[in-house]
Structure formats: structure tokens, C-alpha cells
Amino acid sequence: MRWAITMLVIMLGTIRMEGFMIPGVLEKRVVVKPVREQGVRDLIRSMESHRIRKIVVSKQLDSLVAEESKDDGIVQGVVTHLPSLMIPTVVEKSLMEHVDLEFSTEKTLWEQAAPVIGGSIWGMTILALGSYFVSTLQRVSNFMRPRGMSSPGPQSGGGGSLEVREVSLVNLTDWAGSPEIFRECYEVISFLKDSEKYQQIGARVPRGILLEGPPGTGKTLLAKAMASEAGATFFSVVASEFVEMFVGMGAARVRALFQQARMNLPAIIFIDEIDAIGKQRGSTGGFGGGGNDEREQTLNQLLSEMDGFATSDRILIIGATNRKDVLDNALLRPGRFDRIISVPLPDVESREQILKVHLNRTRFNPVVSKDIPELAEKLEGFSGAELANVVNEASIMAVRQERQVVEKTDLLAALEKSRVGIVKETDTRSPERRRRVAIHEVGHALLVSLYPKFILDKVSIQETYQGAGGYTMYSVQRRGDNDLPTREALLQRMSVMLAGKAAESVFYGNSGLSTGAAQDLQQVNQLANDYVRRMGMGETYPHLFDPAETPHMLHRSFSDTTTYILEDETSKILNEAYDLAYQQIERHRPELEPIIQKLLANKILTGDEFQSTLTLTAKPA
């Protein structure tokens, strides 16, 4: 639509015929003598501050001269080179800010044809044909320009993927995590703000930084914060937007993106999910074995822009990916991505800092502050985005309960919702089925309570919309940062997973087992496979490592004999963990019946309630 309005204004500015004159646009054509040059970003800023009175566009639509009023009352001409992609932005902004828009005095083909055309009917016909031409041109141009292109400013563009931001609304204080990652990013800001200091000693400013890590760890937030701290224009684009079915369109978009960045120096270009176009060339996993397809041309153009003849030291490229291992080697070499920063999942201390950052944005009970370390331990494995979601869900639950502040109970309820999903309030199951679920969950809870390394939080027989008939929540007690899982700890964890099935076997016998342990079996088998194939815990092959994440018959790493031995060892470990769980449950069966009855009556038992009801007769070795 913006292109259609632009073309209509240009046509009306060039056609000289009666009935189609726009006052203030075509009445006067004066070319102001240029004094200096400026970029498009500075031009738009001047229009927003009402320092521009008039704009004269060249005949070729590739440059313009603006009459700028200075504070001392002097009017001067300022030249701006105008890329074709920025024409709609300039026209739209001039109309919004009531700036007189004029065109060059040289006659165009439309002006020469005006006397021949003449008359309002013919004029309307020409405009109708012109509007059809504009709509066709717009459809073609949509393939040629990066989607979502916006004017330099705080707003984003049109719902597309490419955003041009003059100042990001975040800074590095909004990011909490590893101090080493913070230091690396702050050094990047120093590169952009004071590059001469590094050049004097002979250091070259890095041209590219690759952020790799799991989803939700704050890679995009880091890129925005670096752009904000450095005062640079921030370009954000998703790599998949460069890929089109028409060959050459992706490369054209890459060129347009870097052209925009060169006009708004210093600039930071952030390419999210860069593995969409940066996969290894010539591999079946990346480009289907082809050597001349659209993705490869797009990647070649990106490589040229990052380290070619037209590169700029004031443009920093930041890429983000979850799969660094699939990226092309030419993309990872120094000179393109000089630095590779791994952004891992936050540890306990980092989770505490992240929770503090997000809680400070809410109204919470000051008592919650002393519970943050405990909450951080329970949120093991959560990313920064997931932690932010937990705090937000807690705030929503506080409003739902008509409270003015967030309490610890809200945070725990939000944690439970993030793990098990929405809990059903109405239970339509039969008493026998509810008892079976209670036996299953009590089995899990018993094994958790027997091991000092685990902390039991909650046992419930409430159904969830994720398909669980009940759930047992527990956390791992932290014993220092260097507490690596041992063979004994892994075996205990597997016995906890199999305790539900073992409890059913103790109470109902093998013939009375149900399918309720299907999810437990899936998880414990994955852990046992990793135990033997990837952790070096096997007896026959203690130093073997399987590079395949999941065993597959079409991608087997070992011979049939070796695979048989590995699967046999996996089965032995699972049987050992199951026997351990079965023995403990059988030993404490008389003490479990009161707990089962209490759980059936209350539906929920906290860890303290479970421990107070259970009288242990023996401690595991």
C-alpha cells in the first residue's frame, strides 16, 4: 500500500494536466543549492523535529535536496542519497510532517505526453492503468526488498521480520546471567564507541559475533542491548526471510539490508536463526546436495558482504543460532565471525539474578526475597525466557486471587503450571482408578524421600490436560557447582523414575500392571541409553561414545554385535534400577497404606506432609 501511495504521489508530481494539481506539492519548483550531505536517518529526524520546510526530489528519484532551517534562522540545502527501498518512507514521512514535496524542473515523459492526453476522462483512464501498473509493481517489489522494512525510529516495520531501530529500549542491565558473557558483550560496545583506541594499538575491530546457545537464553536481548549501549542503529532480521522460491531474491535482500546499514552508521545487523541460510554448502542436510540453489546464492552474498570489497568497520554483524555445528566453515572463519560467544542455560547463581530482575518489575511481598535461592534451585534447567514466564504467570495468578502483591505460593503455582500444565478441577475417574494412580505416585515419592540428594516438593493425583493422571514434583539438592552426577546418583534417578511401575507391581502383581508408566519408561530408557552410550558408564565398553543423539537403524554407529552388547547392558542397568525401587517399596509397604488413604482424601500432599506421615524403618546405604 505504501508503494502504491508513493507511486501515485510521484505520478501526480510529474503529470501536468488540469484537474490533477495538488496545492503545496506542484505549485513551485525550486532547486536549493546544496551545502552538505546527510543520511536518510538524519533526514527523517530533521523532519520529525520540524526543521525541514521543503524537499526537492531529483528526476531519477535517486537523491533529494532538503531546505533545512537552522536555529540561527539560516536556511541551507542538504543533499540525501535516496535508495529505492526508502522512497515510500520518505514520502510517507513528508506527508505526515506536512513538508512540501517538490520534484525536479526537468520535464519527464509524462509531462511531454500531457497535452496529447488532455481531458479528465482520459486522465482518469491513465490513472486507472497506472494504478494497475503500481499494484503489479508492488507484488514484484515485495520479492526484492526485505520484508518489514521500516523507517529509522523506535517503531517496528509493518509486522515483518526486518526492523530498523535507532535506539533499542533495553540495555545490558536488563540481562542477567554469567558475568563472563556480560564482560564479552560490554567489550563489543567498547569496539563500537571507541574503535580508535583499539586501532592505535593495532587491534582490528571484530566484524561479526556469533551467539550460540539453547532457545530462550537471551541471545536476541543481548544483541538489542549492545546496540542500545553503543548508540547504533539496530537491524533485526530472521534468516529464513531471505529464502524465496525465486533464485536471486534472497541475495538481493541481503544487498538491500547491508545498503541500509551503510547509510545508518554505526549499525548492528542481527540475524536470528542464521542456520536457516548458513548451513554447510554441498551437504545433503543443508542444501540437498545441490551446488547452485537459492540458499547457496544467498549465503554467498552474505559471505561477500561480511568480508568483501565493500565491507565497513562500523557495521557489526551479530548472528544467533541453536545449531553451530551445521554452519558453513566459511561463515565461521575469523574475518566474518571473529568471536563465538556461547550463551548457556543459567546456573543457580544466574537464575537467582534473573529472578531478581523480573521480580523487580512486579509488586511482590518483600518476604519473597529470602526465598529466591530456594526457587532458583527448584527451577533447574529453565532458560531466562522460561524464568520470565514463571514470574509473569505468578503475577497473573496473584491478580486472579485478587491480591495486590505476588506471594511465594504464586511463584510455586506458576512453576507447577510450567511443568505439568493445566490441572483439571473436576475428577470423573472411578475410585479404583484413583487408588491406582495414588499407589503409582506414592511409589515415586517414597524413593525420592529415601535419597538425601532429592527434595520432595509435592505429590498429587490430580489429572492434567497433558494426559498425566497424577504427578510427583521434586528437585535435586545442590552440593556445589562442581557436583557432577555419579554412577550411583544416575542409578538412583532411574529407580525414582521406575518406582511408579514398581509400586503397581508390589500392590497388584505383575499381572495387574497398567499402562500408566509409559511416559516414565520413555524417559528412563533415554537416560539409560545415554548412560551406556554417551557417559562412559558401560562395563564392556567403558570408553565408548556414540555420536548419534538417538539410536536409529538407518544411522547406526556400531556393528550388530556391538549394538547387541550395548542394548544388553542398557537392559541390565534398567533391571538393576527397577529391582532397587521394587525392594524399597516392598520393604515400606505397610507404611505406605496410610499415605495412600490420605492422598486419596486430600488429592495433594506437600513434601513435609508426606515426610510427617511416613515413618521410615531403615535408611538406604
Give a short overview:
The chain is of the alpha/beta class and 621 residues long. Helices cover 47% and strands 12% of the residues.
Roughly what percent helix? 40-55%
CATH architecture annotation of the largest domain: Up-down Bundle
How many separate domains?
4
Number of discrete helical segments: 23
pLDDT < 50 stretches? 14-34, 107-121, 136-167, 284-292, 616-621
Supply the helix-strand structural class: alpha/beta
Shape: elongated
Indicate the mean pLDDT: 76
What percent strand? 5-15%
Distance between the termini: 74 Å
The first-level CATH class of the largest domain is given as Mainly Alpha
CATH topology label of the largest domain: Methane Monooxygenase Hydroxylase, Chain G, domain 1
How many DSSP E strands? 14
- CATH homologous superfamily name of the largest domain? Peptidase M41
Main sheet makeup:
6 strands, mixed
Strand arrangement within the widest β-sheet reads: 6-8-9-10-7-11
Radius of gyration: 33 Å
Properties at a glance:
alpha/beta; Rossmann fold; single chain; Signal recognition particle alu RNA binding heterodimer, srp9/1; Helicase, Ruva Protein, domain 3; 4 domains; 47% helix; 621 residues; six-stranded mixed beta sheet; disordered C terminus; 14 strands
Outline the fold blueprint:
Layout: H1 2-14, E1 34-37, H2 40-48, E2 52-57, E3 63-69, E4 75-81, H3 87-96, E5 100-103, H4 109-117, H5 120-144, E6 163-165, H6 179-193, H7 195-200, E7 208-212, H8 219-230, E8 233-238, H9 249-262, E9 267-272, H10 275-278, H11 284-287, H12 294-306, E10 315-321, H13 329-332, E11 339-342, H14 348-359, H15 372-378, H16 384-400, H17 408-420, H18 431-450, E12 454-460, E13 471-476, H19 487-508, H20 518-533, H21 560-587, H22 589-602, E14 604-606, H23 607-613
Parallel strand pairs: 1-4, 2-5, 7-10, 7-11, 8-9, 9-10
Antiparallel strand pairs: 2-3, 3-4, 6-8, 12-13, 12-14
Helix pairs in contact: 1-3, 1-5, 6-8, 9-12, 14-15, 14-16, 16-17, 18-19, 18-22, 19-20, 19-21, 20-21
